[in-house]
TrEMBL record:
Region: Disordered, residue numbers: 102-123
Protein name per the record: DUF3275 domain-containing protein
InterPro entries per UniProt: DUF3275
Pfam families: DUF3275 (PF11679)
Length: 191
């Protein structure tokens, strides 16, 4: 792993399987596209800090009758010094990484947990299956949850939708970019 200071611009794209984040890393080694699932936790914006590069490689995708070849960086870690969450202009030529995973696997999408289940126990079972070892999530304000992108981008996306949901018009969880974890900021009707 190589560590280098730089600026990572994160933008949110809406693809075939929902929203996903992509990054553009500018550093002394050059400019690189970043397609890691760990970016899905971050809001659009510009993040300055030190980045651990696991590898640099060429990647490609096809979109809108174009074939795009780019130099990509795979991140091993992010240590932020400063950040500014703001809207980043989108190229709309980005390929949905979940669609790429589906093409590689040639399998159907895993269904998302249904929110209209009849039983509270069924909902809890679905959430336990979704979060695995992380379940049950902290129930007190200030409790922390750290997601891991190794579970796959699709499953992590389902976890993020749960954490980003509104209950009675308020968010229950907030992502802390510097610490790279989620913190409970509100309680739902069960607590």
């Amino acid at each position: 792993m190589v560590t280098i200071k730089g600026t990572l611009s994160v933008k949110t794209i809406t693809g075939r399987y929902g929203q996903f984040n992509v990054g553009h890393l500018e550093c002394a080694l050059g400019e690189f596209a970043v397609r890691d699932g760990l970016l899905d936790e971050y809001a659009e914006g510009s993040y300055q800090g030190t980045f651990g590069l696991k590898r640099i490689y060429s990647g490609s995708y096809q979109t809108r009758h174009r074939f795009i070849i780019e130099t990509r960086a795979e991140l091993a870690g992010i240590w932020l010094e400063n950040y500014e969450e703001r809207h980043i202009e989108s190229d709309s030529l980005e390929a949905d990484p979940i669609a790429e995973e589906h093409q590689a696997k040639q399998v159907e999408a895993t269904p998302t947990p249904q929110s209209t289940r009849e039983s509270h126990d069924d909902q809890q079972d679905d959430l336990a299956a979704l979060f695995g070892e992380l379940w049950p999530l902290g129930s007190e304000i200030g409790d922390l949850v750290k997601l891991t992108p190794e579970i796959g981008r699709e499953r992590m996306g389902q976890q993020l939708r749960y954490l980003k949901r509104d209950v009675n018009g308020q968010r229950l969880w907030r992502f802390e970019p510097k610490a790279q974890h989620w913190i409970r900021i509100g309680l739902d009707e069960e607590h």
